């Protein structure tokens, strides 16, 4: 009992000491955390963007419980805002945050606060003076410039733009307009045709914009200074039935069901520019200033474009951030409750300081609260790190998606090249039967013509992928010629008559006039109308109706071509995406590539026209192409002459074949042609077409082709570019680098039709570059022309072997060969037994190779060449009186003087003695 009582004073003293210690610690902690008063003068709190700014401030202030935050709302009144700032100065504040309604009216009172030594943070809207402590906000000039550059890219650097400005005199409206105009100045074909002022709210746009749009119906895009007035612009466009054509770009990019991000996702806005409210940043800046920490005077918040490419990502990110913020708020509420509990227990501890048990309980509660606080802070840090990690992952996913998309496009482009080879085997025989058989029955000729036209259409479909790439990189030129649009559209419709008739579909053509002449690009509009008609035929049910009408529209200075069907129509969810690349529709039963309508839209805009549509579910759709009657001179092909070349030949650069009345340039069944083609069908097709006119040998790879070329020395080589292991370009380079085969003309065949690829083939040494599919008759005539040109070259080399010299300057590989050959013969002129085998052995080739090389270059045999060198040398020796005719004969390797005399006279029509008498002067 005595032992127990002895501990009671000790416990009481411990409890009292603990109470005093906790009280001293609380007082010390309270003394070490000074309290601050921050005043915030806001121009208005009535819009969502300002409310987001205030919400950001309150979120950040939750981390600073020692701050007393006061806000005064000026409600768009500059005079009231000036009065409220004066009230702040009278009440006494440690720091002032100002978001000005108008710059000039509040500048003097802001300067007064700064001169009193009160730190001033300017938020969003600047004042006209530099007397402030720090600025936090976006660069409105940069926002305008970013919007201008985005609009230029969206409209292809041409079009007409309307700008809806904010309140007149406000610095954001002035700066955004300035940046927008600066950006548009770099694009001469982008015109800012009109401006509309607003008070930053939607009703002012609904009141003022309709009259301006009616005065400028040609507007392609509206740039609004915030998302609220952008929504008003959309409602006006919808009212005037311009919503499907006019695109709208806003500013703010706020999250939430009514924010700019949702408007972009819903397709109401084409894009919005992120303009951060800056509430959190303003509070952070204020605390750095109050705590005497380093800070920057100018703090510019970044901006970015939010459109269909990243709106889903931004929405997911903002929703994730909102969810994380809710978690943070719940943790903070828990923390505040725990702090309140801690304060309550601390009060009880002060009252019951003598009670050791109460002190121990309060100590335990305090310890638990401290641990919970640490856990909350640690959890917040982990959540912040997770947000940063997720943001980085989103960026990586976006980059990966971009790389994968590009890889898919490259795959489809390469695949389209491969399709040209089987098309060659279809179009080649069909073209041959149509051109070489005049007695073909009319029905067969009609069916073959139908096969040829549809094969050509298939080739055009294959080219759609390349057209997509050309439009994407801006390499699709417009080459317009003047023609009859009615006849042009009628010709395209002929392709669809038979399939329409088979399904009982009525195909009607209703031109308003029999002839409508205008400038248009045949290649571009052929793809546009073919895709629209193909789409109509695909979705029109059996026994339905397709109507194509052409109508002049003088009021718009254009022509309107409409394609109307009686199909199922286009659903509401598909209408916003119908012109997107690779979009196939949600309810489409007939799945296609998803490229037809997107390609048609891109080509129509390239032709300075418009493609629109109307549709009613269950009743059908109507696609309308509007073309201008006049095109700029830069788009007109003024020197183009009309040609009756097939469509596929025009696309591939193939000229028409020679007519029956024109003589062939060259032809000989003795000429040897080597075909190098790895595709067995194409190889057999080429061999079959060339055998009636030439001797033909073939190889299926580059290495075998090079070996056969060196062994047989053919007169001409036809080679494919895409060969296994050794490409056609490498084969050409090796052929032209070898003196044995350097003289042989080479024709390259390929499915690669890009201009830079053709230049690459010619630079490698090819004499002719043909793209698949090719016209067989054109190929045959080209081979004959190349052989005729080789004949002319032989005459050139023979003329170089003149009377005065027996050598040839080694300027080219063939000339070097002749120089080496001449040198060997000259070195052995005295040998009467000099044979062709001896000369071939000296050159390191076979007798057959030497014969074919000399025959190909000079058109003569090796023996005749040696004889010519001897006789040319004899003319020089006969001018020397010291040698008699017999000595000249033996010195040049003739077996006898009589044979020498006979050969000389046969060559020059005079005997050696007569030649000497004619060219020497008798002595005195």
Automatic annotation (TrEMBL):
InterPro entries per record: CheY-like_superfamily, HATPase_C_sf, HATPase_dom, His_kinase_dom, HisK_dim/P_dom, HisK_dim/P_sf, Homeodomain-like_sf, HTH_AraC
- Enzyme Commission number, as recorded: 2.7.13.3
Catalytic reaction list: ATP + protein L-histidine = ADP + protein N-phospho-L-histidine
Keyword Transcription regulation part of the UniProt annotation: yes
Sites of the modification 4-aspartylphosphate? 720
Its transmembrane ranges are 348-370
The HTH araC/xylS-type domain extends over 819-918
- Keyword annotations of the record: Coiled coil, DNA-binding, Membrane, Phosphoprotein, Transcription, Transcription regulation, Transmembrane, Transmembrane helix
Where in this chain does the record put each Histidine kinase domain?
A: 414-631
* Residue ranges annotated for the Response regulatory domain, each copy included: 672-787
> Which PROSITE patterns does this one have?
HIS_KIN, HTH_ARAC_FAMILY_1, HTH_ARAC_FAMILY_2, RESPONSE_REGULATORY
Indicate whether Translocase appears among the record's keywords.
no
An annotated Gene Ontology molecular function: phosphorelay sensor kinase activity
Write out the coiled-coil annotation as residue ranges: 314-341
Name this polypeptide is given: histidine kinase
- Which species is the source of this protein? Hymenobacter sediminicola
What is this organism's lineage?
Bacteria, Pseudomonadati, Bacteroidota, Cytophagia, Cytophagales
């Amino acid at each position: 009992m005595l032992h127990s009582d002895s501990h009671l004073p000790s416990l009481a003293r411990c409890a009292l000491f603990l109470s005093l210690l906790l009280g001293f610690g609380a007082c010390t902690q309270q003394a070490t955390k000074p309290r601050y008063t921050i005043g915030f003068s806001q121009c208005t709190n009535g819009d969502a963007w300002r409310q987001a700014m205030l919400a950001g401030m309150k979120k950040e202030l939750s981390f600073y419980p020692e701050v007393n935050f006061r806000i005064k709302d000026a409600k768009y009144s500059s005079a009231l805002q000036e009065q409220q700032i004066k009230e702040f100065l009278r009440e006494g504040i440690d720091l002032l945050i100002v978001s000005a309604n108008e710059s000039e009216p509040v500048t003097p009172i802001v300067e007064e606060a700064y001169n009193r030594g009160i730190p001033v943070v300017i938020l969003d809207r600047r004042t006209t003076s530099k007397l402030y402590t720090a600025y936090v906000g976006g660069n409105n000039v940069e926002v305008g410039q970013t919007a201008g550059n985005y609009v230029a890219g969206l409209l292809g650097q041409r079009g007409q733009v309307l700008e809806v400005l904010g309140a007149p005199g406000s610095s954001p409206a002035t700066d955004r307009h300035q940046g927008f105009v600066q950006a548009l100045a770099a694009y001469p074909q982008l015109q800012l045709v009109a401006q509309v002022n607003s008070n930053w709210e939607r009703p002012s746009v609904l009141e003022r914009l309709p009259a301006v749009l009616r005065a400028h119906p040609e507007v392609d895009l509206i740039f609004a200074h915030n998302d609220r007035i952008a929504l008003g612009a959309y409602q006006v466009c919808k009212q005037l039935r311009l919503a499907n054509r006019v695109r709208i770009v806003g500013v703010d990019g706020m999250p939430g069901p009514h924010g700019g991000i949702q408007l972009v996702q819903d397709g109401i806005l084409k894009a919005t520019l992120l303009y951060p409210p800056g509430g959190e940043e303003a509070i952070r800046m204020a605390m750095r200033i109050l705590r005497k920490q380093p800070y920057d005077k100018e703090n510019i918040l970044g901006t970015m474009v939010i459109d269909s490419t990243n709106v889903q990502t931004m929405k997911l990110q903002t929703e994730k951030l909102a969810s994380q913020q809710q978690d943070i708020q719940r943790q903070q509420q828990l923390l505040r409750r725990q702090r309140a509990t801690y304060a309550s227990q601390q009060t009880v501890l002060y009252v019951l300081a003598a009670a050791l048990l109460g002190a121990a309980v309060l100590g335990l509660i305090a310890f638990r609260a401290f641990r919970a606080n640490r856990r909350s802070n640690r959890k917040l840090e982990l959540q912040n790190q997770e947000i940063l990690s997720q943001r980085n992952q989103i960026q990586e996913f976006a980059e990966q998606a971009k790389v994968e998309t590009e890889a898919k496009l490259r795959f489809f482009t390469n695949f389209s090249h491969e399709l040209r080879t089987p098309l060659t085997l279809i179009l080649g025989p069909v073209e041959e039967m149509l051109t070489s058989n005049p007695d073909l029955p009319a029905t067969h000729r009609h069916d073959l013509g139908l096969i040829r036209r549809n094969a050509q259409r298939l080739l055009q479909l294959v080219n759609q992928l390349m057209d997509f790439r050309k439009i994407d990189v801006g390499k699709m030129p417009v080459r317009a010629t003047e023609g009859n649009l009615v006849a042009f559209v009628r010709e395209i419709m002929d392709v669809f008559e038979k399939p329409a008739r088979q399904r009982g579909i009525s195909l009607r053509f209703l031109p308003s006039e029999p002839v409508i002449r205008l400038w248009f690009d045949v290649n571009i509009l052929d793809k546009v109308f073919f895709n629209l008609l193909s789409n109509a035929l695909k979705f029109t049910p059996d026994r339905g109706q397709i109507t194509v009408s052409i109508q002049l529209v003088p009021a718009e200075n254009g022509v309107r071509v409409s394609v109307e069907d009686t199909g199922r129509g286009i659903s509401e969810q598909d209408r916003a995406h119908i012109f997107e690349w690779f979009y196939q529709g949600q309810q489409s039963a007939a799945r296609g590539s998803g490229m037809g309508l997107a390609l048609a839209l891109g080509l129509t805009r390239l032709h300075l026209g418009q493609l629109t549509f109307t549709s009613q579910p269950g009743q059908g759709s109507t696609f309308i192409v509007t073309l201008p009657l006049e095109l700029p001179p830069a788009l007109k092909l003024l020197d183009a002459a009309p040609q009756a070349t097939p469509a596929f030949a025009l696309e591939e650069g193939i000229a028409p074949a020679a007519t029956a009345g024109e003589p062939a340039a060259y032809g000989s069944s003795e000429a040897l042609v080597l075909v190098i083609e790895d595709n067995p069908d194409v190889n057999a097709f080429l061999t079959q077409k060339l055998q009636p006119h030439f001797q033909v040998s073939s190889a299926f790879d580059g290495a075998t082709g090079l070996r056969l070329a060196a062994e047989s020395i053919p007169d001409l080589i036809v080679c494919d570019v895409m060969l296994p292991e050794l490409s056609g370009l490498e084969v050409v380079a090796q052929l032209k680098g070898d003196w044995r085969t350097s003289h042989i003309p080479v024709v390259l065949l390929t499915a690669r039709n890009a201009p830079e690829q053709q230049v690459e083939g010619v630079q490698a040494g090819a004499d002719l570059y043909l793209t698949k599919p090719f016209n067989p008759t054109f190929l045959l005539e080209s081979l004959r022309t190349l052989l005729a040109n080789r004949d002319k070259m032989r005459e050139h080399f023979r003329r170089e072997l003149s009377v005065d010299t027996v050598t040839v300057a080694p300027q080219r590989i063939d000339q070097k060969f002749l120089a080496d050959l001449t040198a060997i013969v000259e070195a052995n002129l005295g040998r009467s037994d000099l044979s062709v085998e001896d000369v071939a052995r000296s050159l390191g080739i076979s007798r057959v190779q030497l014969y074919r090389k000399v025959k190909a270059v000079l058109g003569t045999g090796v023996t005749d060449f040696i004889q010519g060198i001897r006789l040319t040398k004899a003319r020089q020796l006969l001018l020397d009186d010291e040698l008699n005719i017999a000595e000249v004969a033996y010195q040049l390797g003739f077996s006898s003087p009589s044979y020498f005399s006979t050969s000389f006279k046969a060559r020059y029509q005079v005997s050696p003695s007569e030649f000497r008498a004619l060219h020497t002067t008798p002595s005195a």
